[in-house]
Each structure stands twice: as C-alpha cells, then as structure tokens.
Specification:
The chain is α/β, with parallel strands linked by helices. The chain has 3 domains: about 5-195 and about 240-270, NAD(P)-binding Rossmann-like Domain (Rossmann fold); about 200-235, no CATH class; about 270-300, no CATH class. Helix content is about 55%, strand content about 15%. The chain has 11 helices and 7 strands. It has helices at about 15-25, 40-50, 60-80, 105-135, 145-150, 155-175, 200-210, 215-235, 245-260, 270-280, 285-295, and strands spanning about 5-10, 30-35, 55, 80-90, 140-145, 185-190, 265. It has a 7-stranded parallel sheet with strand order 3-2-1-4-5-6-7, with helices on both faces. Helix 10 (about 270-280) packs antiparallel against helix 11.
C-alpha cells in the first residue's frame, strides 16, 4: 500500500506555526494544524485553502489534547492509506521581564505551554507513532526549542527554563524511543519575533507586572519595566498570521521533517547569533560573560 503521511502540528495561529504548516503541506503530507484561536480565524481559513486541516487545540488542557488526538485518529480510521508520520510541538509562549517581576501565572504558563504542553501532545500520540514504525516509515517527534534553552538569558528566565527542559526531555526521549523505530528531534529556529505574535501581549504583561509588585519592589523596578515596555513596543505589535518569510528557518525545518536519518538538533542562527553565542562559550570571567549577554540583548539601561 502506498501510504500517505500525516503530520500533526501545534500552535499554527500565526508566525512560525503557520509557516511550518504550509511547508509541511507543500511536501504533500496531510497536515493537521492545532489552532489555539479556533477554526474560524483568518489563519485557519487561509490554511484550509492550502488543504491544511485545522482543529481547535489548547495544549494546556488534557481534554483539548484528547480532542486533537481523536481528530487525527479519525482521519487515520477513515483513510486506511494514511499513516501518522510526525508530531510537531510548536505551540509556545514568552514573556520578557526579570523573574521577580513576573506573576505566578506568567511563570507557570511558560512551563505549562512550552514544556508540559509538548509532553501532553506526545503522550497522546506515542502509541500511534509506534504503529507507524511497523510500516517501514521512521516517524518522528519534532520539538521547537530555542537558543534560550541552549544559553539562558536574563529577562527570559521562565522561558529559558521551559526550553532547556524541552531540550533535555527531547534528548532523553530520543534515547528511549530508538529501539522502537522512532526518533525525537529538536528544532531551534533562531530569532523571528518581528514575524510572530508571541509578544503580542507583552504590553499588557508589563502592566500586570507593575501591579503584581509590592510597594518596595515597585519603587525599585517600575521605571525599568516601563522603559523595557516602551522599547519592546515595536516588537509587540500584532503581526499578520503569514508574516514569517525566512526561507532559512522554513527549509531547515523541512530537513528535520524529511531527512531519512534526522540528527538530534537542527539550528538556525544569523551571523549575529553565531558571533555572540560563540563568544559566550569562551572561558571568560562571569562579569565579561554577562557584559556580552547584555550587548547581545541590547535592552535599554536605566
């Protein structure tokens, strides 16, 4: 039987997820896009025109993940020539601000979406992926990680922790699944904030941070939070759902998706990322290391 490969991907409402879903479809694979904003959004309607199937999905909810799983399994039952080939965990959230500023909800949401959400999705689909491996196809899990998981950054503590955890989990999963004919891959797409809505709520988050602080903390931090919020304002504007056009990011993902023997890590980095991250690996005093990181971030000083 000539099998048609099915790929389930999360977080396709805009930016990277939308771009990856369209790229998967161009490979001729049946693409099921998890949509946090539902199936009536402009992004979902646009994906439908590209023959991408959309399904509501909130990776924080076990019931929502179960519904996503059932949608995919229904496709497989109704189409005997379909085989689940890949699960792509792209859904992610990020709030910029020192750890002390962030509310418990912000901190917990980073871990709940970026790490636990990916775990929920993989747990739902592992038995079906194992069945696919018996068809002579090497199915895979692709987890969208981050440079912040490789090199934690100030102002990104919960996000860095969630992505570092995602990388560690992916590596352990890869070793566990090897004997079952499955593999797990980490994809680090590099910087694309200006082509994503991942920071669309940043201005509101900064306001919540200030409200969250006690009087002594507010006296110490309010000005810094306000200056950072103003600086990030341009990146916080909502982008079009289809604004990500970086060919290097998209085609590097395509390699992770289609390579017959995928390696553990697929990483995209601009010359600026490559330059600074190379310097950060040098054995320099901690003060010099922090100076390099601040130069890389280029956040305004108070």
């Amino acid at each position: 039987m000539n099998l048609t490969r099915v790929v389930a991907i999360t977080g396709c409402d805009s930016g990277l997820g939308y771009a990856l879903a369209t790229r998967i479809a161009r490979e001729g694979m049946v693409t099921v896009a998890g949509m946090f904003n539902g199936v009536d959004s402009k992004a979902a309607k646009s994906l439908e025109k590209l023959k991408v199937l959309s399904c509501p999905l909130d990776v924080r909810s076990l019931d929502s993940v179960a519904g996503f799983k059932e949608y995919v399994h229904g496709l497989l039952r109704d189409n005997p020539n379909y085989s689940l080939y890949a699960v792509v965990n792209n859904a992610g959230v990020m709030t910029i601000g020192d750890y002390e500023w962030q509310t418990p909800t912000m901190i917990e949401n980073a871990v709940n979406v970026n790490l636990l959400g990916a775990m929920r999705v993989v747990s739902a689909f592992l038995p079906q992926l194992r069945k696919t491996s018996q068809d002579g196809i090497k199915p895979r899990i692709i987890n969208v990680a981050s440079h912040c998981g490789l090199q934690p950054l100030p102002g990104f503590a919960p996000y860095s922790a969630s992505k570092a955890g995602l990388l560690a989990w992916t590596q352990a999963l890869r070793m566990e699944l090897r004997d079952h004919g499955l593999t797990a891959v980490a994809f680090v797409p590099g910087g694309f904030v200006g082509s994503s809505n991942i920071l669309a709520g940043q201005a509101n988050s900064c306001s919540k941070m200030i409200d969250h602080l006690d009087p002594d903390q507010r006296k110490l931090f309010e000005k810094r939070i306000t200056i950072l919020s103003d600086y990030l304002q341009s990146a916080c504007q909502s982008s079009n759902y289809n604004s990500l056009k970086d060919i290097d990011i998209i085609e590097t993902f395509a390699k992770a998706l289609t390579d017959e023997k995928p390696r553990f890590l697929y990483k995209v980095q601009s010359w600026r990322y490559a330059f600074y991250y190379s310097l950060m690996k040098m054995p320099v005093p901690e003060a010099a290391h922090l100076w390099l990181i601040k130069k890389f971030l280029s956040f305004p000083e108070v």
